[in-house]
Write a structure and sequence with these properties.
heterodimer, A: mainly beta, six-stranded mixed β-sheet, three-stranded antiparallel β-sheet, B: mainly beta, seven-stranded mixed β-sheet, four-stranded antiparallel β-sheet, 53% strand
């Protein structure tokens, strides 16, 4: 049950687009179309932003999108805004558990 | 409004036990699988355990298998996590989480701190 691999930090300027990667194996990310992404602001509980690779819950901005290729999933945020600055975690379903990535800190410069 | 309210956390010595509870409201509790997810201070998220909507199936992370037991009482709309043989490395904020689909969490509790220290 190894954690999924994410970059520790990503930087972007307001209005730009950024992409956060999430790499797993064929037993998790690559084996199922059940990757989700969470946003967490300091001191707050996580918030679901993307589920099932590329679906958005109601109320989540369409500036957030997800994709997957092989064993790597990606979260793209377009039109960066100051309030997007947060930690982002990917997660993947497996046959016996749920794996999270180590988290990526997004800084909006 | 969906609400998940954890209780039962606190300070415990290594080797000790605690039972976390999560009171659910605002949705049909018995229709949803549930999970516990924890977060060590300043660290990332770690899935701890999951349970099916009926309670008939349970799942555990390797790090807690044999020490933690997840259960639920659908008549009381409450989720539990019995934690035994606690270790210093179990120190974390524990979140009660409502599952939707496969592995997704659409609602989280506010979290409760468990500190294991002598």
């Amino acid at each position: 049950q190894s954690a999924l691999t994410q970059p520790a930090s990503v930087f972007g300027s307001p209005g730009q687009s950024i992409t956060i990667s999430c790499t797993g194996t064929s037993s998790d990310v690559g084996g199922y179309n059940y990757v989700s992404w969470y946003q967490q602001h300091p001191g707050k509980a996580p918030k679901l932003m993307i589920y099932d690779v590329n679906d958005r819950p109601s109320g989540v901005s369409n500036r957030f999108s997800g994709s997957k290729s092989g064993n790597t999933a990606s979260l793209t945020i377009s039109g960066l805004q100051a309030e997007d600055e947060a930690d982002y975690y990917c997660s993947s379903y497996t046959s016996s558990s749920v794996l999270f990535g180590g988290g990526t800190k997004l800084t909006v410069l | 409004e969906v609400q998940l309210l954890e209780s039962g956390g606190g300070l415990v010595q290594p080797g000790g036990s605690l039972r976390l509870s999560c009171a659910a409201s605002g949705f049909t509790f018995s229709s949803h699988a549930m999970s516990w997810v924890r977060q060590e201070p300043e660290k990332g998220l770690e899935w701890v355990s999951g349970i099916s909507d009926s309670g008939g199936k349970t799942y555990y992370a390797d790090s807690v298998k044999g020490r933690f037991t997840i259960s639920r009482d659908n008549s009381k709309n409450t989720l539990y996590l019995q934690m035994n043989s606690l270790r210093v490395e179990d120190t974390a904020v524990y979140y009660c989480a409502r599952r939707v689909g496969y592995g997704n969490v659409d609602y989280w509790g506010q979290g409760i701190l468990v500190t294991v220290s002598s």
